[in-house]
Design a protein that fits this description.
about 350 residues; single chain; mainly alpha; about 75% helix
């Protein structure tokens, strides 16, 4: 090796290390800011989107300097969803709204590709997952403390929302689902490594989820808990034992709910506690409204043709028709069927 070649190699290694560190740092910052969805900017953009855009650019720069391969996950189904979505948007009554929705999906896919491309080593993946665990626990702690000390603005509590906490998320259900998912990320990564610290993190995440008043998140936590029980027993004992325990839990839980649900719901609905009244207490009303909404949307699907109404077109279409309520789908699977038709549903599956 010549004397001039060695400094050039060292300089190249330094550029690779610098670009890789910058890319990882920005991805970690974006993961930590996932809950930072307010205030809103153009095209429903949020503060975290700026950091995500910088992270995408940094990963592309790192790949160019290091020669690393960029990976695009979900390429085939996303190509189908985006193609159908863009075509449906062109022929929809609101092409601009549909076009914004498609651009948002492309942006999120690009960030997903950036994370996937960067997490090619155990250390990078570990850093991303641990950042998720720590950030979600911090956001949950801030929400719980804000509620306890009476800071509604910090907790995202408003009278219009029935006292449900949403922090900086768009909706309490979004907040609840974020904290619910984070419980399983903590369980899967076993981080924090200390059992006591991990238990405390899970407790505060569940508390924040409960304060959001999201029945969907609570139900998902219970169902996901059953999956965890099944997988744990299957690993430690046997598949038969795991299946038996889960079936017994379902029978006991279902039987208990059938016996106590009537009196319990009466007590809950008359409760003065807003977190109980506007979460579990609204379960029956919420189920009825969802059923009516889904009926209206299925009617739209029957009229929508092979490519649907166009992305983000459900609410706008329901506003122009005699529907029970003009709302978005509240169900991503049904939304895909209604707004992108059968072709979009195939791509999703």
């Amino acid at each position: 090796m010549t004397a001039t070649a060695e400094p050039q190699l060292l300089a190249a290694d330094t550029r690779v290390e610098t670009s890789g560190g910058m890319a990882l740092g920005l991805v970690l910052a974006a993961v930590a800011m996932m809950a930072f969805l307010s205030p809103k900017g153009p095209g429903n953009s949020a503060p975290v989107d700026l950091v995500m855009a910088l992270a995408i650019g940094a990963v592309v720069l790192w790949a160019g300097v290091s020669g690393a391969t960029l990976h695009l996950p979900y390429a085939v189904p996303m190509a189908g969803l985006l193609t159908v979505g863009a075509t449906a948007a062109l022929f929809s009554p609101a092409p601009k709204l549909g076009g914004i929705a498609v651009m948002q999906e492309i942006f999120l896919l690009a960030f997903c590709a950036a994370v996937t491309s960067l997490c090619r080593t155990p250390d990078a993946l570990r850093a991303v997952l641990r950042t998720w665990c720590l950030a979600a626990t911090a956001w949950a702690s801030a929400l719980v403390v804000a509620v306890l000390v009476g800071l509604p603005a910090l907790a995202g509590v408003s009278r219009a929302g029935g006292g449900r906490a949403r922090q900086m998320f768009d909706h309490p259900n979004m907040a609840g689902n974020y904290f619910m998912i984070s419980v399983f990320v903590v369980l899967a990564t076993r981080y924090p490594s200390s059992r006591r610290a991990r238990g405390a993190a899970i407790a505060v995440l569940v508390a924040a989820m409960v304060l959001s008043g999201s029945n969907a998140a609570s139900l998902s936590l219970l169902l996901g808990g059953l999956v965890v029980v099944f997988l744990t027993l299957r690993w430690r004992v046997s598949t038969a034992a795991a299946g038996t325990v889960v079936v017994l839990l379902l029978l006991v839980g279902g039987g208990t709910w059938a016996v106590v649900s009537g009196p319990a719901m009466t007590i809950v609905q008359e409760s003065e506690n807003p977190y109980i009244k506007y979460s579990v207490g609204r379960a029956s009303r919420s189920a009825e409204s969802r059923q009516s909404l889904f009926s209206d949307q299925y009617r739209l699907f029957e009229k929508g043709g092979l490519i649907g109404l166009g992305p983000a077109g459900t609410r706008r279409t329901l506003e122009q028709e005699p529907a029970s309520a003009a709302k978005e789908s509240h169900n991503d699977y049904l939304a895909t069927l209604v707004e992108r038709g059968p072709f979009g549903a195939v791509a999703l599956l």
